[in-house]
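haha ok so turns out i had the wrong file open the whole time. this is the CORRECT one, sorry everyone. sequence first:
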Amino acid sequence: MAANLRQITQRALSRRKFDAIVIGGGHNGLIAATYLQKSGLDTVVVEKRHLVGGAAVTEEIIPGYKFSRCSYVLALLRPDIIRDLELVKHGLKWYYREHGSFTPLIDSHRSLIMSSDPVFTRNQIAQFSESDAANFQPYEEWLSKYARHMEKLLDVIPPGESKLSYLRMLSARGLLPDLHEFIDLLTSPATKILDRWFESEPLRATLATDSVIGSWHGPSTPGSSYVLLHHVMGGIGEREGAWGYVEGGMGSVSNAIARSALAAGATIKTDAGVDQINVKDNKVCGVTLHDGTVIESNIVLSNATPKVTFQDILDTSILPQEYQTHIKTIDYTSPVFKLNVAMDRIPTFRGHANGPGETAGPQHQGTIHLNSESTSMVDKAFADACQGFASDRPILEMTIPSSVDPTLAPEGHHVASFFIQYVPFSPADGEWTQERKDKFVKKVFSQVDEYAPGFSESVVGYDALAPPDLERIFGLTGGNIYQGSMGLDQLFTQRPTYLTPAYTTPVNGLYLCGASTHPGGGVLGAPGRNCSKVVLQNRRK
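then structure:
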């Protein structure tokens, strides 16, 4: 199936005029294209890389080892999108993570494993605090209450009239009666919220990591609780709050969406970077590709970041000055270093025996939190990066998807994904050269060895991506995985700016459909689907 998709997307464009053009074949762009095509608009997707998927791709960087090279877990993809686009029929398959996280302690053989089994998890937490063990389920129920309310807003097109519209919507969704508590949750540091519930550091730190993932702040930063909330929304299929690995890597998500788009009649063209968005009399009229090909359409959706869309491939001078100013001041700051590693065996963590025949155990199947034994360690890592340097002891979130998916590596071998924080985009003492990246990776491996002796010797090869690499390869401005920071100033009606109604731009017929729009980043699909709704609504006017 993958070879067939590759063959189709490499075909030359047989036509030069479409009802709609989507710039960027990431998952949101593909989803928008599929909905538009199903609604009767003849749609083409143009993608600059040799494969579709954007940040949700599978690449065999090291022969025999398949990596989810950028995004690496599935949880937030909207269930109705899976149903509407028949993604299971088109090849999407996932493995649920029954064990969600593993936090080993470096100074002892103790660890904290969080599981979908509430009794198992309670016993794990009770090692550190009986009080925390008793409070954990009430905490999950409390946070889930707000997550369920917020989740309803994911599929809503933000109102453009006024902030009062937002408050009316909150009231309609049942949030207004608890508005003070809700605002406290949104604006507080994650540590403030977690300190109210728990006393043991391994638990607080494990939970706090979700409040900083991909974000330029620490758990003690005001507003970090929203990111915590963002990551407990959603689920997979019918299992609320579940996380999982996609069989074949995250590229299988994008490929399934692409097959749905093709089945509906859409056209997808890879190796087709856009040189310019063409505009006449403030109306979009198509795009010009890098090879000079002109494709005509009076509807263009950009899945690229606002920076790429408005500053790189559009004549910025046609935009109102106020809009230009807003676009230029979007925060894309990123703390992320992505590291993909091929291994000839599964790691052995101190105090934890591997399964029979050196197979994976519960400690391998979820997110492995290293250098994250206390919230102060996370705050310290952030403070280091604020001085312009990569953290001396960075926060390491390690996943081993091959522990449940045998399609990713040769038998007995494994692939690991490291999501590392914090690093600056431009270090104070120089750029991210290959030598600097290799030195940083060596430090990471040596610190993993402290938890899993012999890890370094198991490494077959690796793919190291600093923030500038994430920008260059995947088009993520600043290396930001959300196409713009998820601070409270860049959410809902403010995303990416309040100056135009959601998903629209000052240029007639030009729309934004990527994660830079509401509801933001993650493999959600909601921005693409919501944008397609706005396009169709405006076309009927």
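The two ends are 40 Å apart (CA to CA).
again sry for the mixup
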